[in-house]
Amino acid sequence: MRADPRSARWAWLIVAGLSVLIVAFAVGCGSDDSTSTEASSDSAPTELGAGEGEVNLVAWAGYVEDGSTDPKVDWVSDFEKETGCKVNVKIGNTSDEMVQLMRTGQYDAVSASGDATLRLIDGGDAAPVNTDLIPNYADVFDSLKDQPFNTVDGVNYGVPHGRGANLLMWNPDAVKTAPDSWDVVFDPAKAGEQSGSVTAYDNPIYIADAAVYLMTHEPDLGITNPYELDDEQFNAAIDLLKQQREHIGEYWSDYTKQISAFANGDTTVGTTWQVIANLLEADGEKVETTLPVEGSTGWSDTWMVSSEAKNPNCAYLWLDHIISPQANADVAEWFGEAPSNQESCALTADKNHCDIYHAADEEYFDQIAYWTTPVADCGDDRGDVCKTYDEWVQGWTEVKG
Amino acid sequence: MGRRLADLFHGRPRLQVGSLLAGPVGWLVIGYLGSLAVLLVASFWTLGELSGEVQQDFTLDNYEQIITEPVYRSIAGRTVLIAALVTLTDILLALPLAFYMAKVATPRVRGMLVVAVLMPLWSAYLVKVYAWRAILSQDGALNWVLQPFGVEGPGYGNVAVWIVMSYIWLPYMVIPIYAGLDRLPNSLLSASEDLGARPGHTFRRVILPLIFPAIVAGSIFTFSLTLGDYIAPQLVSSTQFIGSVVYANITNNLPLAAAFATVPIMIMVVYLLIARRLGAFEHV
């Protein structure tokens, strides 16, 4: 049936009109949470209601274990039984991923590292936390309370999960002499011996690791805070990383990737988390770890509550549970970090755990530069000349080439 | 109710056609083209100096950055080069296979080959890439096979990405070429032989021009899919592709990510225009 030009025009008008209607209808009735600007909570609740029946968490791998990885590793099942809050966890592989996930507003709580916390607070994605509603907060180490990366203007935005350091890991069959310094991955001569099998964390925050190395090996640069770098310091760190690039076999961002790389022999030395070394040893691989003499970067993670949490009461119950003595001891042992609850040290399976991880050793943690978000304000008399996180991202793009 | 609707549509062909097309066209125009337009607009924005929040002021800074800074140029160049290599590789691999399937194989074998070519598409993309990660690793299958000859495999890197991408997109090249060859009448090949042409000559002068549209159709898949990929490069190499940079920047610096994301779009527009010029869309 051939249409004449007039009716063809009409047909297209009807198509356009109906399509606008249909799509407008779909968008309007669809996700009402993400498009509407509902008033997200700017203030912490004053009292807790009943649990909502479930809680949606974003967490680092190994933080929320329910027995599915290892039947003996489970601090979720008893929480679910006691509170009736079913736990759904989404693993975030990097801080960037966690920030993105929390921005969707579909999760209730997140275990955020310092390089994510400030972004979440500034972006309005994290709500203030009323620590009076969390009984176990009283037993947290004082040195972990009210830290600059999770407390803004005296308002708490979460509770500390624990803290740990990024360690140097090596394969003793490939690296014959046990290293005690980061120069085995940064110094051109030493890294050259393992050229093609060095690894580094694939994230802009790794620039801070280069800065920590330069703090000891190039003191003229005057780096005092590895996260607040001005032009000269930043460029020096970038140059160091570009030099390192020549010897890198593979960068890792996914912990399973580093596990397979060490197990296959693709990587023999580089930065790691203790939990990765634990998992490799559990699989029968030979690896060793150490905290090098220059110190290291590390993390002190904070459990935060989303400003758009649909299950805020269960979220608070989870926060209280994860920093309770037994649960905090369990997760600290499994992940390989120092617990945040002082009472946990008596409850770890390995009685030396807290000593090994320096849980009460403030001098040790003075050597660790916790992940935090680089901001323009250097925090000292240099003013606002420091590189911001998006400049770190661009610098990292340049390093990887 | 149904009666009244039927009455409404009766004798009004424009209304019938219009209503049928409304949904898909609406999705295409508003959902797809609309979101591309939003992306384009975001690329002209910038980040606040101190706050790091997106500010909606018009600026060409992002485009200036991706054009002037050498790292972005080299990343784009590398991505296009690997996409072209993958496309060429897949054409070379697909042609003999598709020719065998279309012209030589018995119907039973043809059926089995079609299933065999399509079966990898049933498994998830990540599963295939991780499988290749295991094959290409230091202690992996490839090195094990090459060991008696004293050579080592490529390991992780650009070559690994090339191999993995060629493998993953191969079915998308085989099927269009197979369809094109299937439509080629066998009588043409016999006629060519009768006129004295040797097989190579027949291939160049008879077969290739006729299946050219099919080859281009397949190449659009392999080229564009490789251009946008960022997962395989991350898993089997440490190199950065266009997609890797977009992914890294999308949380913190949306305008820069958007600006860089327009690069593959423009490359594909040029590619499609060239393909159209060469007659690829005449009769596929």
Question: How is the topology of this model organized?
Answer:
The complex is a heterodimer of chains A (401) and B (284).
Chain A: H1 5-29, H2 32-35, E1 54-59, H3 77-83, E2 86-91, H4 95-103, E3 109-112, H5 114-122, E4 126-127, E5 151-152, E6 155-156, E7 159-165, E8 167-170, H6 183-186, H7 188-193, E9 198-201, H8 207-217, H9 231-245, E10 248-252, H10 255-264, E11 269-272, H11 274-282, E12 288-290, E13 296-306, H12 312-322, H13 325-335, E14 338-339, H14 353-356, H15 362-366, E15 368-370, H16 389-400
Parallel strand pairs in A: 1-2, 1-3, 9-10, 9-11, 13-15
Antiparallel strand pairs in A: 3-13, 4-13, 5-6, 7-13, 7-14, 8-11, 8-12
Chain B: H1 2-9, H2 13-42, E1 46-47, E2 54-55, H3 61-68, H4 70-104, H5 107-118, H6 125-136, H7 141-146, H8 158-183, H9 186-194, H10 199-228, H11 231-236, H12 242-249, H13 254-277
Antiparallel strand pairs in B: 1-2
Structure in a nutshell:
The complex is a heterodimer of chains A (401) and B (284). With 401 residues, chain A is of the alpha/beta class. Chain A has helices at 5-29, 32-35, 77-83, 95-103, 114-122, 183-186, 188-193, 207-217, 231-245, 255-264, 274-282, 312-322, 325-335, 353-356, 362-366, 389-400, and strands at residues 54-59, 86-91, 109-112, 126-127, 151-152, 155-156, 159-165, 167-170, 198-201, 248-252, 269-272, 288-290, 296-306, 338-339, 368-370.
